[in-house]
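B., you asked whether I could sanity-check this one before it goes into the benchmark set. Here's the sequence:
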Amino acid sequence: MSAPAYKVMLLGQIGVGKSSIVQRLVFDRFETSYKPTIGVDVYRYEAEADDRPVPMIVWDSDGNLGDAMFRHVYLKEASAALIVGDITRQDTIDSMPAIAAAFRTRLPGRSVSFLVNKTDLWDGQALFDAELARDGELIFRTSALTGDNVKRAFAETAKAIVRRTA
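And here's what the prediction gave me:
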């Protein structure tokens, strides 16, 4: 019997790079033409956690749903959330803790990580870590363009899921 696939949500505002992250993760490519997600797109990915495969179903949500996302069936049985912000848009970074809190309210005890994306466009030193990691969330500075830390973020999420379900 094969291992169960764990549902992992990609959450965040419109245009932060959720679809680009999952495209880099699953297909190892970056699309230069932007096509907004309508509703949700679903992808399968197998991460490695402590030398064992962890199958994931990654739900790439659109950013239009706002708080309605947390009342929607999309979140049902989610094992983790990766919340994405755009390092070049402070408002998207500022919204990440509220998204995490809403996810935790709906699904307590699940893994939550922050992906501060588009680091390839940032030439300054960002100091978001202390502000974001109030509740022990992992923070990854990612670039869907270069692939920096994308697979690592999902591998760490897989480890957190395995620890929780063990």
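One thing to flag: Helices lie at 18-27, 90-94, 96-106, 129-132, 150-165. Otherwise nothing jumped out at me.
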